[in-house]
Amino acid sequence: MYRFTNIYYYENKIMCNIILHMGSFLRTVINSIKDEKVKRSLLGSTNEEQASVLKWLSFTNSDFLDSVTKVFCIVTCQVPFNKKALDAAYAALDTQASIFETRLTDYTYLVNEHITLADIFTAAAFTFPFSTVIGAEWRKSHPAIVKWFNTVIQEPIFKDSFYYDYPIVKPFESKLGRSLSLLLKATFLYLKKWKRKYSNEDTRPVALPWFWEHYNPEEYSIWKVAYKYNDELTMTFMSNNLVGGFFNRLSGSVKYMFGCLVVYGENNNNGIIGAILIKGQNFKPAFDVAPDWESYSYEKLDPVNKPEDKEFVNDMWAWDKPVVINGETREIADGKVLK
């Protein structure tokens, strides 16, 4: 049995790995066939069918996988992020997919009305984008492909030759033991670039305008995070150490996050509050990697539609203005950056 499973691609070897896996899979399928009738059925019973099988194999292994790989490389930062290039890559992927969709709208399988090697090979190829860059919205707009895929992988010949243990059409997820989604869809915000911008540029005049220009609220969300037990805090430096410890325990999620928590007030009368950006719309998977995450409250902000929320984020990330807590102005004593 050939096991095509748990696919991870790194650096610029992605396409080579795909072709290697697919080639090995194809050879395994062909070599495992003993019945000549079954073999003719899979490879095509007529010259026309055989040519059609080869046509789909070639198209899948070249045009289609090339488009998938280009999208994958950009959204996973294997190459420098470029919005125009990403849009073009997705457009190319949609163009290639439309060829499958058109064919499968009128036919159960790619070549004829029974499964061939073209279906097995192409379904194997589709596990890559289904597991990484193709989300629910894309699948909804390509119902014929999804129906065909789910049909093919139930075929006995497919089960005997191919093992697929990714959840079918499940988005690629982090392996932190959490459901923090890595690839929701194309994003305007290149998080690593933003972190460099924040670290190296003046915050108010340069970094923050860049952030809001590139911020995609469908891909990321921003949360007001506040410590629940301010009445237990004493020295401001101890409160700041508390924040530092919390951030250290968020290390499992930090590559999907950015933000600041500040300590406001003075010794024996201080509190902790801030704004943290996370990938996705659910705060819990990002924060519950830290054992003390429940010591903080989380309120989702809407900086796009609420100017006061945007101003709060700016103030928390710039640290150059006092904070207003319950109508009282409090000076910032210290703070930490999560990046």
Task: Kindly report how far apart the N and C termini lie.
Answer: 44 Å
CATH class of the largest domain: Mainly Alpha
Percent of residues in helices = 40-55%
Global mean pLDDT = 79
Q: Tell me how many strands there are.
A: 9
CATH names the topology of the largest domain as Glutathione S-transferase Yfyf (Class Pi), Chain A, domain 2
The coarse silhouette is: elongated
Tally of helical segments: 13
Strand order of the largest sheet: 6-3-5-4-9
What's the domain count? 2
Task: Please sum up the structure shown.
This protein has 13 helices and nine strands.
Description:
By secondary structure, the chain is α+β, with helices and mostly antiparallel strands. It folds into 2 domains: 2-163, Glutathione S-transferase Yfyf (Class Pi), Chain A, domain 2; 191-338, Translation elongation factor EF1B, gamma chain, conserved domain (Alpha-Beta Plaits). The protein has 13 helices and 9 strands. It has a 5-stranded antiparallel beta sheet with strand order 6-3-5-4-9, with helices on both faces. Strands 1-2 form a two-stranded parallel ribbon. The chain has a two-stranded antiparallel ribbon with strand order 7-8. Helix 4 (83-106) crosses helix 7. The longest helix is centred in the first third of the chain and has 29 residues, at 47-75.
